[in-house]
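Standup notes
- DV: blocked on the single-chain target, sequence here:
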Amino acid sequence: MTSIQPLKTRKKKTPREKARLMALIAEATVDAYNESEQRMGFYTMLEEHLDMPFDASILGVNVVVERVDLADDDQIVAICRRGRTKQAVPILDLPLPTPRPAGTEWIDAYRLWTRPG
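- DV (later): unblocked, structure below
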């Protein structure tokens, strides 16, 4: 069973970690001219680098994160399955398991990119 790190106890990024995330942001958005193209850059990087499928727990329910997708509103979502039921969950809201799958630093970079300021 996978354990999830509660949102409130996540540690603040060190300057080194933040610099690494900023480098990932630059890589994902290098040739993008607007926000939609930048988001597509993150989607592409997640699709290429995030090791899927992986197990996660959403509100106490165990699911399998099968893939990422781009919703009609340009939101990046994780397609989660439990049995025959599938649900799209915004990648920004997806609780990550411990240990984290390879490639989750791209989710961290995307979260940083979406923060105002």
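- Follow-up: The CA atoms of residues 18 and 77 lie 23 Å apart.
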